[in-house]
Design goal:
The protein has eleven helices and 14 strands. Strands 10-9-8-7-11-6-12-14-13 form a nine-stranded mixed beta sheet. It has a five-stranded mixed beta sheet with strand order 2-1-3-4-5.
Length: 364
């Protein structure tokens, strides 16, 4: 049996739950090769995958002495909101730990493996490394680059139109693509949009089409604090961060009284400093930032090199004149184009889902 793939399946089950912690799965196997415990990481502040697997084994009456733990990320070695998982495994008497990849968190970064080996536990690293890293790309980005992984989502016709000239965009793609878009929202730590989208569409931008244990944080780019206090984005129970270039005033106080966190990050042009905003979101424990914005903000994020990948749903329609995916500066040579690599292409109903990454951006 491929125990590490079973552990990866468990980690995937935690996709919508663990933010800002990584998604991790653990399988405990006895000396005869039988699975005696399984677990995945719970919500932040609750038990990690290893502890859940140990609890599962105990509830079934299994001894963990001499067992092997298959885990998709290095067991943590530090005291955060929970105790160190490596200590729990040591106390449980496991004989071996097979881990997919080292934890990029500087507070761990090999220390978990070192403590296990010091306790006489054999450690093997590498099975499932790519899959585990991919599942936690935002966490790796925040730990290594100190900023979230930024994913830009768009739905467009085959000729690249995201809305009619009057702004109408509901619905270019079909139900399957829209439900899948909600799944990508659900896995993100935060969803970002701009004030133009809020004023034009008054969206909720919450997760409704798939089951989820948490709603992602809402990030709004609003240079002049134009967002109405009655905007639907305030309806969902979740944190709301508003990045602005405006000074303190009555509107700011009213938004904060409503529960929003208003953050000033002005640039020299009197707009929001988008690069500073992305860095600040990293400090606020945002792993994956999911962008659902209009073509102007999309263009600004692309021009500043802040987008890591594009999630594009293409409908088999030709619309002609309309709004594009992003407002780009005119180019004089094809070499100036933003170079992407197709990561995956899938069919959802009648539509295509394309995941394309900025070339080289995931090499960190």
């Amino acid at each position: 049996m491929d125990y590490i793939n079973t552990a990866l399946d468990l980690a995937h089950e935690a996709l919508y739950r663990t933010s800002p912690n990584p998604r991790v799965g653990c399988v405990l196997v006895d000396k005869d090769g039988a699975i005696i415990g399984k677990g995945s990481t719970q919500r932040a502040g609750e038990a990690h995958a290893e502890v859940m697997a140990l609890r599962d084994a105990a509830q079934q009456g299994h001894s963990t002495q001499g067992a092997t733990a298959y885990v998709t990320l290095e067991p943590c070695s530090h005291h955060g909101r929970t105790g160190p998982c490596c200590d729990a495994l040591i106390q449980a008497g496991v004989a071996k730990v097979v881990a997919s990849i080292a934890d990029p968190n500087p507070a761990v970064a090999g220390n978990g493996f070192a403590r296990l080996r010091a306790a006489g536990i054999a450690v093997e690293v590498s099975p499932g490394a790519e899959a585990s890293r991919e599942l936690n790309l935002g966490f790796f980005s925040r730990m290594i680059r100190k900023r979230p992984w930024v994913r830009m989502k768009a739905a467009a016709s085959l000729d690249g139109v995201t809305a009619l000239p009057n702004g109408t965009s509901q619905w270019i793609t079909g139900p399957a693509a829209r439900a899948d878009g909600h799944a990508w929202r659900a896995r993100a730590c935060a969803v970002l949009t701009g004030i133009g989208t809020v004023l034009a569409d008054n969206p909720r931008l919450d997760v409704r089409d798939v089951p989820t244990e948490r709603q992602p944080t809402l990030i709004l780019v609003d240079s002049a604090l134009e967002v109405p206090l009655s905007a639907q984005l305030f309806a969902a129970k979740r944190p709301v961060y508003i990045y602005t270039a405006a000074a303190h005033g009555e509107k700011r106080g009213a938004l904060e009284a409503q529960g929003a966190t208003v953050i000033s990050r002005p640039n020299k042009a009197g707009k929001v400093d988008l690069a500073a905003m992305v860095q600040d979101l990293g400090r606020r424990d945002i792993n994956e930032l999911h962008v659902e914005a209009g073509y102007k903000l999309n263009g600004s994020l692309l021009r500043e090199g802040l987008v890591d990948e594009l999630l594009v749903y293409l409908a088999p329609k030709l619309i002609g004149e309309g709004l594009g995916l992003a407002q780009m500066n005119p180019m004089t040579a094809l070499s100036e184009a933003h170079a992407l690599s197709f990561h995956s292409v899938d069919r959802l109903g009648d539509d295509l889902r394309i995941l394309a990454r900025v070339q080289g951006r995931d090499r960190f």
